[in-house]
Request: fold
Amino acid sequence: MKIHVLNPQEAQKIAAGEVVERPANIIKELLENSLDAGATHITLTVKDGGKTFIQIIDNGSGMSPDDALICCHRHTTSKIDSVDQLESITTFGFRGEALASICSIAKVTLTTKTANSLEGTQLFIEHTKVQTNRVVACQTGTTITIDDIFYNVPARKKFLKSTQTEWNHCLTLFKAFALERPDVHFSLKHDDALIYHCPPVSTLQERITQLFEAPLTTAVIPLITYNQDDVTVTGAITTQQYARYDRGGIFFFVNHRWIKNYQLMQAVTKGYLNILPSGRYPAGVISLTVNPKTVDINVHPKKEEVQFLHPKKVQDAITHTVKTSLEQNLSQQLKRPVTFATTTEHFTPTFEKPFFIMPEVAHNQSMTYQTSTAGDISKLLPPFAEPFDDAEPFSYSDEKKEQQAVEQFAHCIGHYHNTYLLLEHKDGLLFVDQHAAHERILYEKFGQNFQNLAKINLLFPLTLTYNQETIELLANHFDLFKEHGIELEQTGKNQLNITAVPVFLNNQPINELIEETIGLIKELQGINSVEFHKIITEKLRAQMACKAAIKAGDHLTKETIDQLLTDLEATNNRFTCPHGRPTTWLLPLNDIERKFKRKL
Reply:
């Protein structure tokens, strides 16, 4: 095959993929241009999650007719004149490719006027070329309308996600810009409905109040400003009174640019060490100001990531600021009562601790274990168990050795701390974590019996309150919850009811289960539907098993203990719970005897 030069228009469509992957990328570029133009009032309108229509109206400086004609050409910019200026760039955009890329994969209408002009310019651009150019009457500023994204690149258009997924990306982006610029008036419309109307405010906390639900806003505290070694950290974070199940509530800004950075996220998490439970995350806005020469904002085509010259210094600054701010707030909280707030207004369930299993019986039959005697305890041992010190690991390497263990096992000799079952074994003392063991039993049974799930229709439905974004997210997954015996229905703009639950989750904190699933859904946005359903099903069933399982601290009868051990022996993957924690652990006899100086 001969090498040839690609048609410039086709090459531009391909190159656009580096900048424009989804509607949110277009919105980001256009909002940055509006802010660079000095806009103080910006209205963003999207339809169908941005897949069919995007419009941004600003009152910025606007463009002259000549500037309007060349702004959509590649490598045109008002930000820099040479590459040397990249080290000190303070504006958002400078690549000179964003508008050109957008015009190559969408139909664009540009209307603009400067303050000293009596009339404006309107251009219609298609296939990267100006199709019409006319004089119009308009306000000072710029209006850009984007229609039919990827209309001419079907290979890319088919990879756009669902309307809800694309809308969530647009919504998150809008919040980021509004948080960074509380002095700007932002409005957001989706499918002709006004979602946010955010007049300018004087503080970040006021802006947070405009954008987020009450449980979050009431738990927000300002960061103690950090200013050392050319690094300044400001912003606001939530206290220990607020927790969520995903990391999506933390926004990072570097020199006013919204960025994503896993190391910065770790730095924040480190600041919350021993303050929030494992698997829970805070929310907040972290704004970093650094010397432009010490950060490269040109490492990502869409300018979503940055690279620091001294990353450790920046991370330590964030951790120190977060930790210091929380410690100061905690010391003040000790002077008055504290109540724990969650991400939504929840019902308060009555906690009972019945010992549930997944029944293989009709719906009207009992859900209790039948009394039995524990069987082969040796089967509870993992293929190898951790030695207490440096002793040889316990293992079954062949059938003969396993048979010997079967013949010599003993019985359950105790229940320590209402959490661990103690089993006598010829090779030592075997511990069984009652919660982890029961969790694994339930998880495996769930996989076998969810087709005929026993449910309870609630006489008094449980009402949960969420923001509109979360309600819309959940509405797309009602069928998923129904597959798992949880029936939901939306009863208002910000409310939904739980009308039915599985029998084994009766009187359990269903609200927590739904919260955890919301966090997981947000984390998994963007992956293909088959993989999404597989992962979400596994995680949801694991969480359901955790909620329904007996807990650490629950007192168990001898009959229940015997049944638990019997079921654990017959369970696949019995050596860990669904979350990966061990169900059993062996303290070798050799280690015990060495501790008592019986052996050297």
Remarks:
- Residues 161 and 520 are 17 Å apart (CA to CA).
- Confidence is low (pLDDT under 50) at residues 13-17, 337-375, 384-410.
